[in-house]
Amino acid sequence: MAANNNWSPDDAAELYRLDAWSDGFFVVNELGHVAVKPFENDALTIDITDVVAEARRRDIKFPLLLRFQDVLRARVRRLNEAFAEAIDYTKYKNVYRGVYPIKVNQLHEVVEEVLDAGAPYGLGLECGSKAELIASLPHLVSDETLLICNGVKDRTMLSLIIAAQKLGKNVVPVMEKFGEFEQLMALAAESDGKTQFGVRIRLRTGGAGKWADSGGYRSKFGISLPELIEVVERLEQENASDAFILLHFHLGSQISDIQQLKQAAKEMAQIYAELINRGMPIRYMDVGGGLGVNYSGGSDGGINYSLQEYANAVVSAIMEVCDARKVPHPTLVSESGRALTAHHSVLIVEALGAYQKDRVDDDYIAPAGAHRMSRTLSEILQSLRAASDGEMEVSELLEAYHDIVEIHREASTLFGMGYLSLEENALIERLYWSNCSAVLRHLRAADPDPVPAEMRELEDKLVDQYLCDFSVFQSMLDHWAIDQAFPIMPLDRLDTEPTRRALLVDLTCDSDGKVSQYVSSNPDKQFLELHPIQPGEPYFLGFFLMGAYQDIMGDAHNLFGRVAEMHIYGDAEEEGNFWVEKVIPGTEVQEILAQVQYFPNDLQRRMQNLIKEKIESGAIRPKRGMEILDQYMACFKDQTYIDPRPRQ
Questions:
Q1: What CA–CA distance (Å, rounded) separates 277 from 249?
Q2: What distance in Å separates the CA atoms of residue 225 and residue 216, rounded to the nearest whole number?
Q3: What is the gyration radius of the CA atoms in the chain, in angstroms?
């Protein structure tokens, strides 16, 4: 692709769709660099290339995860202020108390940052396993702080929850199955008989998007309406109605359609009204998670509502039913983890090299002694290169392409039969790709409508592969598992037009180790427009919206471990408008090996025996053998990713 000399940073922002997914936190500055705007209503920006330069100065290894903690705090404020505005506007007669589901990102610093930012709003936590419960309980500094316990719970968990309630903590186990309710009541009866709990209802309203099965009858969790009646009757019989304090539903991790949420909220509000009128003193209405994030701004990963519209929908839908049924407005709860954490993390990845199709030189002409197929391909190429853009008819171009493909196929057959030399076959391969590139250039200039299948085929064939220093399975598992698209773009050179069409591939020895869907204004989402890699100049890409789930769900494919992290705060009085609070090194080789039961002492002994055998046989000298052993042992402290820099 030829570069557009009139290209500007605004064009780059449009190409990579910043306005659709950045929520105002990321911009392209006048230098053509990606910058962070961590503070609302403040012009301060942090040039991410300055942060990368600081990381390199400190000899921090890449790939590198940057956590912009001020962005995390801003998301917490926005969520709570949106509900406050909705409550004030509608005159809702109760309050909002959000909880952060730590499964979204359990890193201690993330949880503490969220809790600190949410303290003025009474933000609590949500846990879904034994380990998460144990991690969450000590953070309930205030007795009013809400801790909601979802997921399957065994006797140990339920007993610990009851113990925390006896400490005066506001811990609410949500009954996912009727058997859990029976076990909780039995454990409570063994002490003083007092407990409090909530119930997750399996609504008729289904979810929408990738997690549609989280709601409706196909939901993995939840109590049915007949079981709910059994719970209520049991409580009435035992005079324990005051234990039932929360109703909960969940439509999925990323609700794409706001109408689904409104419908579910109204259905749950009707259940709430019925239970209130029956004497159940329910205080909380938990609408679950699902507040979406606009990963692409389109139907393939976007949402059709804003944060304020989400809050308005929850408040108004529940208030409408409560007022009609003349029951008190409950305290509103949501478990919005993705929307709080996604924006604050950016994965920085270096492109190690670009693999392009081999071509002949621009002035190449096949000599008279070349194979007839090489001469024919050379003649076609000369005619294509001699023609101006728009000069050739689409039919001519397609005919040329068909001839090129036929010659390439014939060469493959002849080579397989031994009638074509390796050198001749290699030259035909280069001429083939040169011709394909020339045909595609002319077809783009012709801009045919409709687009012929051959043009789409060429677009796919001629995409470059950019080898990147990361693992899809470790750092963006949702892309591999559920085709989640994440915004990716270069960190600099955005004041010049990207002219390469790239497919990003990772370090793993797996054909799935690639990024196959991109966020772009280009209609074809199967490639990313990037710049040519310049020799000796690092080319860094930013993978955005990585803060939700990706940090914690990573898989150690090929034993690639966690990446290094830098935690960043904005400050106008610091150089570059930022300071680094903490650096967490990436996983060392010895750490990841230990997870699969390989230990340095045992491996050293085995390697030592191998080297000793070679020394005794005279294959190597003792000094050289010990140098090899030292070299081997030094690798244990390396991080698991590629270091492209030469050793000093």
A1: 20
A2: 12
A3: 30
Distance from C-alpha of 50 to C-alpha of 33, rounded to nearest angstrom: 10
Residue 97 corresponds to which tokens in the numbers above?
């108390």
pTM (2 d.p.) = 0.91
237 burial (CB, 10 Å; 0-12 / 13-18 / 19+) is: exposed
Residues of the chain with pLDDT > 70: what percent? 96
Distance CA 196, CA 178 (A): 15
Helix (H) or strand (E) holding 469: none
Q: Can you tell me the distance from the alpha carbon of 364 to that of 574, in angstroms, rounded to the nearest whole number?
A: 56
CA nearest neighbour of 121 among 154, 58, 79, 65: 79
* Runs of H (alpha helix) within 203-355: 225-237, 258-277, 307-325, 338-341
Cα distances from 59 to residues 347, 353, 541, 643, in angstroms, run 17, 21, 18, 11
pLDDT digits (tens, 9 = 90+) for 280-314: 999 999 999 999 999 986 655 578 899 999 999 99
Residue 608 CB partners (closer than 8 Å, separation 6+): 629
Strand-pairing partners, residue 543, are: 347, 488
Domain 372-461 sits in CATH 1.20.58: yes
CA angle 345, 351, 354 (to 5 degrees): 150
Structure-derived torsion over alpha carbons of residues 373, 379, 380, 385, reported in degrees to the nearest 10 = 140
Contact assessment for residue 161 and residue 173, using Cβ atoms and an 8 Å cutoff: yes
Residue with tokens 């290094």: 564
Neighbour-count burial of 456, counting CB atoms closer than 10 A to its CB (0-12 exposed, 13-18 middle, 19+ buried): exposed
Alpha-carbon distance of 351 to 381, in angstroms, equals: 32
Q: Please report, as a single letter, which amino acid is at residue 344.
A: H
Q: Can you tell me the distance from the alpha carbon of 384 to that of 441, in angstroms, rounded to the nearest whole number?
A: 9
Tell me what the mean pLDDT of segment 612-624 comes to.
95
The CATH architecture one would assign to domain 93-343 is: Alpha-Beta Barrel (3.20)
pLDDT in tens, 133-158: 999 999 999 999 999 999 999 999 99
For every residue of 388-449, DSSP letters joined together read PTTTS-HHHHHHHHHHHHHHHHHHHHHHHTT-S-HHHHHHHHHHHHHHHHHHHHHHHHH--S
CB 311 within 8 A of CB 98: no
Ranges of beta strands (E only) in 108-169 are: 124-127, 146-149
Q: Which amino acid is at 70?
A: D
Neighbours of 630 (CB within 10 A): 9
At 275, list the tokens: 């239970």
At 435, give phi and psi (nearest 5°).
Answer: -65, -45
Q: Which two tokens stand for residue 484?
A: 């989640």
